[in-house]
């Protein structure tokens, strides 16, 4: 029972620790720039200059309100659309707002409109990223807030929302919208865009729309898991107080590192003591009859004292790894994990704390927590019923888990425990990096099964 309690504590730390609460972060993208002037106005005004000026004013207004702001460009710089999305993916803001001015072949068309990607109106030749398909309801909410804010602040004609597959709103990973502030092709609109007063009002309206959608006092509703395959598990664990996100988002596809994972174990109390073994010994007689099933499948009856249990020997030699100094933020946790046998180093003398952790590694770590560090050599079964279940086990049907691999036994046991499955009926994907979504489903399954 103690083991189960500690693993649930592990789950709490798994999701709460890596993502501490921070101020809401907005990425502002001034369209065009550098060698790309964008649209040219009725009397020669260049779009890139208008976009940048309004974007800088939005930035200043948001910072004054307490937001964190990232700019794709803050000068007359050339950036490809791919580079702009790469900036967003690298910084993981809460939202992305791209600022443009419009142009149309009919000069009488004026006003403000906002573009966003809507999964209900896909374009075959311009597929969206998986995240933007899932996030399209959130992108629409952001688009509505931007349009309302801009129209209210400037009095501009409301041209509504436009479902679009332009790159900036379909290829990112956070709720995104592109606002067309006014039409450079319309003489009256171009005159407004030349005006500093109008630009200030437009910037204030955009900032107000952002604040309406993304308030500084962030609430937890995880808009980025809408339609996600792990949605139910994530929200069940959230309601239990086990998982947390960062503001409005959970970041289900965020990857974990080895250091992050073992720090979670340390903070949950799993690495610092062997009290679990002690607690089990106090719940039963000092001498316990156990059935031992060895790796070759043979069964023996054995009697031993709990203090003679394999693996209780103290670690006499202090481990050291060439890539782990005492100044590393996770030094204590990584060393405790290594000394306890939960985490192993590599043959080159490294332990690679900042390397992403794979599904195979997580499987082995959880297996060691459930069955002990020596679980790949011996199983301790507390009853004949457990032994019967073990003898009925089947090997998982994964073509990418050879029996000779170091993680095969762990995958075998946890698959039979109905704790972990593959990514398909025939693939376990052992080398795939573990994500927060996968971990949520894993823990949800463990608790409810």
What would your notes on this structure say?
The protein is built from 16 helices and 9 strands. It is of the alpha/beta class. It folds into 2 domains: 25-213, Zn-dependent exopeptidases (Aminopeptidase, 3-Layer(aba) Sandwich), CATH 3.40.630.40; 254-448, no CATH class. A hairpin with a 4-residue loop joins strand 7 (287-294) and strand 8. Helix 2 packs across helix 8 (196-213) and helix 13 (359-371) crosses helix 15 (408-416). 41% of the residues are buried.
Task: Provide the fold topology.
Layout: H1 2-16, E1 25-30, H2 47-65, E2 68-71, H3 81-91, E3 95-102, E4 112-116, H4 130-134, H5 136-154, E5 158-163, H6 167-170, E6 176-183, H7 187-194, H8 196-213, H9 231-239, H10 258-267, H11 275-282, E7 287-294, E8 299-305, H12 331-340, H13 359-371, E9 378-381, H14 384-391, H15 408-416, H16 436-448
Parallel strand pairs: 1-2, 1-3, 3-6, 4-5
Antiparallel strand pairs: 4-6, 7-8, 7-9
Helix pairs in contact: 1-10, 1-16, 2-8, 5-8, 9-16, 10-12, 13-15
């Amino acid at each position: 029972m103690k083991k189960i309690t500690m693993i649930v504590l592990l789950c709490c730390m798994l999701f709460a620790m890596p993502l501490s609460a921070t101020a809401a972060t907005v990425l502002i993208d001034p369209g065009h720039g550098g060698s790309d002037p964008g649209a040219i106005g009725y009397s020669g005004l260049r779009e890139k200059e208008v976009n940048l000026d309004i974007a800088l004013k939005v930035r200043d207004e948001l910072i004054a309100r307490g937001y964190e702001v990232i700019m794709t460009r803050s000068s007359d710089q050339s950036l490809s659309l791919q580079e702009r999305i790469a900036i967003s993916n690298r910084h993981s803001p809460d939202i992305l707002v791209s600022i443009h001015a419009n142009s149309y072949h009919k000069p009488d068309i004026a006003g403000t409109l906002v573009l966003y990607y809507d999964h209900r109106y896909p374009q075959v030749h311009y597929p969206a990223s998986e995240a933007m398909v899932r996030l399209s309801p959130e992108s629409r909410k952001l688009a509505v807030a931007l349009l309302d804010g801009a129209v209210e602040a400037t009095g501009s004609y409301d041209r509504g929302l436009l479902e679009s597959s332009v790159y900036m709103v379909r290829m990112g990973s956070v709720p995104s919208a592109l606002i067309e502030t006014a039409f450079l092709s319309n003489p009256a609109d171009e005159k407004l865009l030349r005006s500093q007063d109008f630009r200030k009002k437009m910037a204030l309206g955009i900032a107000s729309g952002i604040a309406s959608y993304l308030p500084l006092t962030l609430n937890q509703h995880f808009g980025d898991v809408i339609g996600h395959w792990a949605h139910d598990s994530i929200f069940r664990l959230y309601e239990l107080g086990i998982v947390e996100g960062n503001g409005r988002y959970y970041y289900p596809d965020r990857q974990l590192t080895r250091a992050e994972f073992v720090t979670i174990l340390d903070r949950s109390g799993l690495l610092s003591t062997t009290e679990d073994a002690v607690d089990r010994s106090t719940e039963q007689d000092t001498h316990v009859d156990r059935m031992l099933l060895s790796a070759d499948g043979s069964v023996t009856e054995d009697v031993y004292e709990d203090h003679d249990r394999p693996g209780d020997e103290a670690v006499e030699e202090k481990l050291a790894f060439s890539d782990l100094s005492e100044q590393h933020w996770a030094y204590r946790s990584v060393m405790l994990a290594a000394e306890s046998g939960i985490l192993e180093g590599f043959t080159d003398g490294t332990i690679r704390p900042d390397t992403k952790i794979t599904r195979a590694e997580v499987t082995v770590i959880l297996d060691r927590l459930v069955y002990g560090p020596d679980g790949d050599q011996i199983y301790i079964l507390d009853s004949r019923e457990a032994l019967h279940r073990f003898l009925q086990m089947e090997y998982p049907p994964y073509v990418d888990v050879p029996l000779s691999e170091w993680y095969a036994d762990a995958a075998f046991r946890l698959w039979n425990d109905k704790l972990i499955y593959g990514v398909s009926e025939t693939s376990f994907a052992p080398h795939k990096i573990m994500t927060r979504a996968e971990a949520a489903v894993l823990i949800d399954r463990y608790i409810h099964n």
